[in-house]
Amino acid sequence: MTDPEFHRIKRLPPYVFADVNAMKASARTAGEDIVDFGMGNPDQPTPRHIVDKLVEAVNDPKTHRYSNSRGIPGLRRAVAAYYGRRFCVDLDPEKEVVVTIGSKEGLANLAQAITGPGDIILVPNPSYPIHPFGFILAGAAIRHLPVGQDFTFMEQLARAVKHSVPSPTALVLNYPSNPTAQVVDLDFYREVVAFCRKHDVYILSDLAYAEIYFDGDPPPSILEVDGARDIAVEFTSMSKTYSMPGWRIGFAAGNRTLISALARIKSYLDYGAFTPIQVAAVAALNGPQDCVDEIRALYRARRDVLIEGLTGAGWRVPAPPATMFAWAPIPPNLHHLGSLEFAKLLLREAKVAVSPGIGFGEYGDDHVRLALVENQQRIRQACRNIKLFLNRCGAAMPALAAVPPPPAQILSLARAQA
What we know:
By secondary structure, the protein is of the alpha/beta class. The protein is built from 14 helices and twelve strands. Strands 2-8-7-6-5-3-4 form a seven-stranded mixed sheet, with helices on both faces. Strands 9-12-11 form a three-stranded antiparallel sheet.
């Protein structure tokens, strides 16, 4: 029997991170020391009081039974209280909040609930992969909105709505942004909400990095805008705020129609997150928040060390104002390689793993993403390695022919100068 070609799988492109991950694994198997800035996987332990609450809850046999697909009432109330404290937004925990098994699951299941073949979803490019592919798996068509210095978001949005047939169902937003680390203010949200209300477009906002910010005011919620809850739902995760990535717990809040649709489809697909995890999440949201300040300070310090080190290495990378990522433009003399080949080159020659920007969309191919998941000593080590690597390539580049050579040529010339 020949391998079947499953329709939904065919809609997924090759996983571009796989090549770098395979190279990284091979290098480590060979005993090489790789500084890994690739995956945004928090390396710090979950705060002690949250772990203690999990242990306490799991020792109660009653918590071992099926949970509630919408989330236990106590956690939905804690989410509503968080929105009240942080954003001055008054949510109904019964009708405007759903607990999700991480924000990724929530986005994917909402995509299944509200879209089908032929529907058009507007997604920024570059963006976190679940934002477009959750809807692609649901059968929708994606219209990409290019973002970056060369583009004005509202112009791209207006153009997309004008030229989309049928009219778009929803717009995905993600600020602070993964991978670009871009932040926006309430004026931006007001403009987007007014536009989308006029054109009957739902807004799905991913606010996973609401508490990982370094400069300026704390990132706002789109739900702070008057009228936003008529069309908008927002996803948030415990993963980064409380260093709970493996716990897989998050929530959706906002528009009652979208929340109801998500709750209904989840009722068919899961029984909710394990109850002790939800109980521990209540302790996280309602308990002392000094741990959040410490996590934020940790990422800020790592950011400063990374940006200073890369600047010293001759690689000009903007300091991210938020998130746990730096969005780094490929150095000019290596720009022609594209992000995947540059990432491979960096791994081979500098022993540093990064995520190629092409993995976040075609408009990310001139950047790579660096995650702040290594300690300061390891970050400095990586910057030293990168400096040596860039110096070798910089010495080689002027002698190269006008037609860009393949990476192997660059390497041979760089090694000859080392």
